[in-house]
Amino acid sequence: MKKIFKAILAIGIIGAMALGFAACGGNGGSDAIAVISREEGSGTRGAFVELTGVEVDKVDKTVVTAEISSSTAVVMQTVTGNKAAIGYISLGSLDSSVKAVKVDGVEATADNVKNGTYPICRPFNIATKGDLSDAAKDFIAFIQSDEGQQVVTDKGCVSTGSTGAFTSSNPTGTVVIEGSSSVTPVMEKLAEAYMAINSGVTVKVQQSDSSTGMTSAIEGLCDIGMASRDVKDSEKEQGLEVTTICMDGIAVVVNNDNTVDNLSLEQIRQIFTGEVTGWSAVK
């Protein structure tokens, strides 16, 4: 009987511990911060660590305990489901499922990216190599036109200027685009708007990451590569021609139930490098 009692007691203790762990958001303590980051090769991660000081002397110092997410959508889902979580996403992908904190007192908005007051922003670039098909040329012309830049603006990004009204040369064919999961949502909208004008072209947008997009463009696996960061000199040296299609902010996001609504750049750096591990330290 004593053995049975001890076994029951042990099960009860383990169950209570599990419940406590779950109640704390699965991060080992009610005050503990759950850091959510992107995978290596992500343009958003590359830009984020550089702009926030998480990268030191070209070395990414993201805390080793960070949970790694493979896309913007996964980051948002993870933060939505964990009250202790903090992550970062493209401003153009921000919705009400998560809360964007102010950075140094400045809200993460397209207007603040445009006026230069929001400190975490980066370019959305496309890259091509060699001779392009008429269809690819026409689609790029659409992106840069008044109509294309209106799509960019409607998606919450910041236009860098347009070339005027779009007139299609009415080519036919298929355009394959690959790369950044942050650029993908706005590119899908651009493709949809373009194909409504010219049904003779099919634009296929394939989501991966910025580095894969650049490699695919270099190797001729796609017509256009997407990057949510500056294109590296080593990539340009392999024949890539780069066009910035817009600017985008990187929103630092927390769960909607989190009471924190403002963080300094230094606090963000400390959180993502593991120097600060509890929410009470930044409240």
Offer a few descriptive terms:
283 residues; alpha/beta; D-Maltodextrin-Binding Protein, domain 2; 2 domains; nine-stranded mixed sheet; two-stranded antiparallel sheet; 10 helices; elongated; disordered N terminus
Low-confidence stretches: 1-28
Q: What is the 3D form? A: elongated
Stated plainly, the CATH topology of the largest domain is called D-Maltodextrin-Binding Protein, domain 2
| Tally of distinct domains | 2
Fold topology:
Layout: H1 2-23, E1 34-38, H2 43-52, E2 55-56, E3 59-60, E4 67-69, H3 72-80, E5 85-90, E6 99-100, E7 102-103, H4 110-114, E8 121-129, H5 134-144, H6 146-154, E9 173-180, H7 184-197, E10 201-208, H8 210-219, E11 224-227, H9 233-236, E12 240-254, E13 262-263, H10 265-273
General description of the model:
This protein is an alpha/beta fold and 283 residues long. The chain folds into two domains: 29-121 and 250-281, D-Maltodextrin-Binding Protein, domain 2 (3-Layer(aba) Sandwich); 123-245, 3-Layer(aba) Sandwich (D-Maltodextrin-Binding Protein, domain 2), CATH 3.40.190. It is 36% helix and 24% strand. The chain contains ten helices and 13 strands. It has helices at residues 2-23, 43-52, 72-80, 110-114, 134-144, 146-154, 184-197, 210-219, 233-236, 265-273, and strands at 34-38, 55-56, 59-60, 67-69, 85-90, 99-100, 102-103, 121-129, 173-180, 201-208, 224-227, 240-254, 262-263. The strands form three sheets. Strands 1, 4, 5, 6, 8, 9, 10, 11 and 12 form a nine-stranded mixed beta sheet that branches. Helix 5 packs across helix 6. The longest helix has 22 residues, at 2-23. The N and C termini lie far apart (50 Å).
